[in-house]
Amino acid sequence: MAMEFIGSEFSQVCASPVTENGNSNNLMASGATFGCLWVARKLKDEEGFYCPHNLDFRGRAYPMHPHLNHLSSDLCRGILEFAEGRPLGKSGLRWLKIHLASLYAGGIEKLCYDARLAFVENHIDDILDSANNPLNGNRWWLNAEDPFQCLAACINLSEALKSSSSHTVISHLPIHQLEFLHPYILSSDGSCNGLQHYAALGRDSIRTSLQVLALQREGDAVEVRKQRTAFPPNFVHSLDGSHMMMTAVACRDAGLQFAGVHDSFWTHACDVDQMNRILREKFVELYSMPILEDLLESFQKSYPALTFPPLPKRGDFNLREVLESPYFFN
Hints:
Layout: E1 2-5, H1 9-14, E2 18-20, E3 23-25, H2 31-43, E4 49-50, E5 53-55, E6 61-63, H3 74-79, E7 80-82, E8 86-87, H4 89-104, H5 113-122, H6 124-132, H7 147-162, E9 170-171, E10 175-178, H8 194-202, H9 210-213, H10 221-253, E11 259-261, E12 264-267, H11 272-287, H12 291-302
Antiparallel strand pairs: 1-4, 1-7, 2-3, 5-6, 8-9, 10-12, 11-12
Helix pairs in contact: 4-5, 4-7, 6-7, 10-11
């Protein structure tokens, strides 16, 4: 993922105190903010740069640079963009609007796509004002839950709307897709997306069946409880890490720019539809493998003196229905 920075608007905004709901907040007061902006200014004249990653013991990827990366704050995400730009296209313009509405949040991100598009259309004047005059206008963007990412989207959408050919406008903005709950246990809140992986393992169940297989060794009862509690989420984190890596490789092979953090993926607006197809296909591919069977076999080989219970019975949910679920990631 080669990245660079958005235009000069952010330099002006980030260096100035802003007032929201009557409270003055000097962004430079935060050490993390200072570190982010210091690195950004050092790199601002580069054509682009890469974010090397480390993998933890579960296979989850983390950017190595601590101050400026897409895993960090709203400000860091707001000033980063892909070094390569691509024309929006018709689908890209639609996804840019959905992305902006989701960043504004406040419940808007939980609405259907058509409702999010309608929200943007109803706030076109606010969006244009935010892009043209972020500090001295009505500062609508400051009401967003992710204000700097929202401002970046306002600027990009404003460029498209002002163009006589909005679909040909070049966009560098990463468009976010977040993993939501499995449609079989549908929720509009992505805060419990680990349930998606439990559901895929059980084909209809969100109960922590992995705990049935959690290794039980002799020792202090407290340590045993900790082990039982820790194993299922760590195993599931290894699975979402696997899903992200499979998606990243497939996107690379398809010529897409890709950024990812666990259950959050980004690509160009024009490529969101293709990335959505890829990530669904890779999810189905991953959970079509005998994951629990392999896990049980590894336990039995490693600890032949222990007796493990049989695997829990799976439901009859057809994983391929994920391929047609519009809100599986959104």
